[in-house]
Amino acid sequence: MSSHRTNRASPDASGEPAPGIVQNYRERLQALGYSPGLTGKCIRTILHLIAWLSANGTGIEALDVRVLHHFLNHDCACRGPRGYRKNLERARWHLHRFLGFLMETGRVRMPAEVESGARVVEAFLQTLMAQGYVHESIAAYRKRCRHFIVWLYLHDVALAEVDDDVFSRFLLHDCTCVHPHFFIRTGRFAGRNNSRSKIGVFIEYLIGTGIAPPRPTPACEEPGRYLARFLVWLRRYRGIGERTIQSYHKAMRVLLPHLGDVPGRYSATLIRNTVQCRLETASRELVRRETSALRLYLRFLALDGLCRPGLVAAVPTVPRQRFSTLPRHLPRDDIERIIASCDRATPKGLRDRAIVLLLARLALRAGDVANLRLNDIDWDEAVVRVSGKSRRAALLPLPQDVGAAVRDYLLHARPVVDAEKVFLRTMPPLHQPLASGGVSAVAQAAIKRSGVKAQGLPAGHVFRHSAATNLLRDNTPLEVISTLLRHQSTQTTAIYARVDVRMLREVAQPWPVAGEER
Length: 518
Description:
Layout: H1 2-8, H2 21-31, H3 36-55, H4 65-72, H5 92-104, H6 112-130, H7 135-154, H8 164-172, H9 191-194, H10 196-208, H11 227-237, H12 242-259, H13 268-281, H14 284-303, H15 332-340, H16 347-362, H17 366-370, E1 377-378, E2 383-386, E3 394-397, H18 400-412, H19 436-450, H20 462-473, H21 478-485, H22 490-493, H23 501-507
Antiparallel strand pairs: 1-2, 2-3
């Protein structure tokens, strides 16, 4: 009798009873060991769903997570037992389990949008595998991306419509996403904590493969008509490096709204007032760098006849306290301890040792090491080409221990990828080169491992300062040190002459005391 009542309450696509579905599901629950009370709650929830589907003219085979989403949020006026209108939100789990049962028995298929999204996700994961991601990372990316696919389906958003606004909505949504046999949510969803970076990489893949549209170029006007020409002038005629050019670009975008767009109207008063206003809102060091960019910009305008010559002298000098402290450095024994702290038995240790040796022996900057390319090393001549801050390349000798360390890294530790930079990441994606910040992090980690006390010292630059200081204490001529450091003037190198305190004490005159003969 119970089976007969169940079938009468279970409509199919035409509104007629769906023979045996509810009874079969009851038997499935009993086989899983459900108690009679819990089984009754599940069946009442299913009967409520079937009655709602029938009232809307929908059949069982059209059931999916989107339909369940609408059912769980409907303003219930369904005819039936009183239990229909109680604790509907708590029945979410029962409904998704029932949907899983329908999928297992072939009565319901996974939506085409979810299936196509799953194929895109797997293609994306293949690219991650090729980049060296481990199995655990691949599994985490699969879970996050499948969650994103389910959320897109629930909100009727196609992959081709994904943009930054869709991404923001996903990160902020009140998550109830789930799909049987595709995505089961375990734990609380916190979009900004555990999904932002991974879904961000997936969206970059969608854009790169043409599935999602590219991000629109921000419509922002340059603050000056001549700024683009100024950047070309810096690059072509001044030989300034790209990072410095970008720094000057940023500075002029700040200053030009104050100066205006008509260079012919520039005056000494306007320039001084502009710098004074910046000093009231920005640090002295930042304004000092901005005035350097402003001087070059005024020179460019004067050369093109766009402003009056001589305005460069109107740019005020921002005072800077130079040489107030001695250059900080480490003795040779500490440098050797830092080098020895790198573990040669691991690929990461081989890479880190090669980096630290380049910093210590050749006094390179972190950016020099990061920008080192495979064809910059001439193994036959034992020299390395370093470009430094500008595009002027310098050839430096490659010491035996440095060359051996770089060779060991290239042969035994460097990922086999098509990349021209020497030093690459040890964490996926492996084909990406190590940035200058990464080189500094390697140096900092080596200093920490060695136990050397170097608090407050710039990790990427301390080796350069130490090399110059130790050479100076060995009575190495200043010109030789300047060549190693690739300074254009020995005056820049002369700052290291202040580190030999013992020599300074010998040449220093005693402080005069009142009443004593001089």
